[in-house]
Amino acid sequence: xxxxxxxxVDSVRFLVSLPVELKRNxxxxxxxxxxxxxxxxxxxxxxxxAHPHIDPSSDSxxxxxxxxxxxxxxxxxxxxxxxxFDPSFDGRSILxxxxxxxxxxxxxxxxxxxxxxxxxxxxxxxxEAAKWKTSEASxxxxxxxxxxxxxxxxxxxxEAAKxxxxKTVQLLLDHxxxxxxxxxxxxxxETASHGYAEVIxxxxxxxxxxxxxxxxxxxxxxxxxxxxxxxxLLLDHxTVDPSANRNEAIRRACSDEVSWTMGDQYAGxxxxxxxxxxxxxxxxxxxxxxxxxxxxxxxxxxDNNKIIREASSSGSTDxxxLLLAxxxxxxxAKNNEAFHSALIRGHTAVVELLLAxxxxFRAAVQRNxxxxxxxLLAxxxxxxxAxxxxxxxTASGxxxxxxxxxLLAxxxxxxxxxxxxxxxTASxxxxxxx
Length: 434
What we know:
The protein is 62% helix and 0% strand. It is built from 28 helices and no strands. The protein is mostly helical.
């Protein structure tokens, strides 16, 4: 041990040559000195491995695991070719380590070793390779007939897909035993959340994959996390229904909910950085909403136009603008709740968007909301003559004299519109005050 500490190769060589039985395995202490150079470690390891009593597999192959973990790959190779090396003592952890810190030459040596079973522990090696995005390890393992990539309910492709490992997913899809629809199409459902469009494209091309599984969960997940490319791919699929689960996709896309997934971590977004996370989450919102609104099955008016009411209340200007452009959306629902909520909360941009929409003013007139009409008329964006002076024609026909008076005071109002309909309907209905 002292010779190793002194980094003396000659001393180690001399001691190894003596007919002395070793009480402890010096290989276990080879990597404790961080000041040793790689060449020194390799030279000493070579001398130690020449000792007839050295067992490189003792203590569950700790010598190999230590060398490989510290990336002393030269030492690792020496141990593998040693006649006493027996990876079956702890072959599971050795292969797992080799997958996580991948070196093709060493990995090939390990899986070619007669005492290594790459299918051990329910084919843990291929499952770990998928988790760690080690596509080359997956390729080598798939070439071994002992390996079953469908083990544990096709865990390998499920893990590779949700981690965005395109190469491994393609390799697995090409294998006859792999089923990408396992666990009710978990692969495409989970991948949609993480936003890996290329993986989604591969999965959609496989006829076994059903993107509508679990009430179209894939597009609901993609919309919730604002995965624009994923949503676009799914909308192009003829069986996908973005209105599933009471139009959850558009509701989630429009909401202020900030969602994060494992994919965001891989993109370099710190989960404790709220501003960064929020910016990332909202960056794709407008485009996701636009895509969904363009689909004929999506209904943005459900629950009495709840989506625009909530978007206005939260000040989501981009969403409100897109919703107002939809022909079915009524921003005046629930007594112009959208406008009042935005006004109370100081969302000026949303207020101005709503003021410019004719339905907001029309609803105020139709419901005889005098104070609201006065408030609207005072705003330069409101045009009471819209719809060929529909406002004064409606108010006159219903006998709303106070509203009529305010409208007549506005320079844009023309009471003679539609061949004097205002006075004709007021007279016909007996509204003498009008």
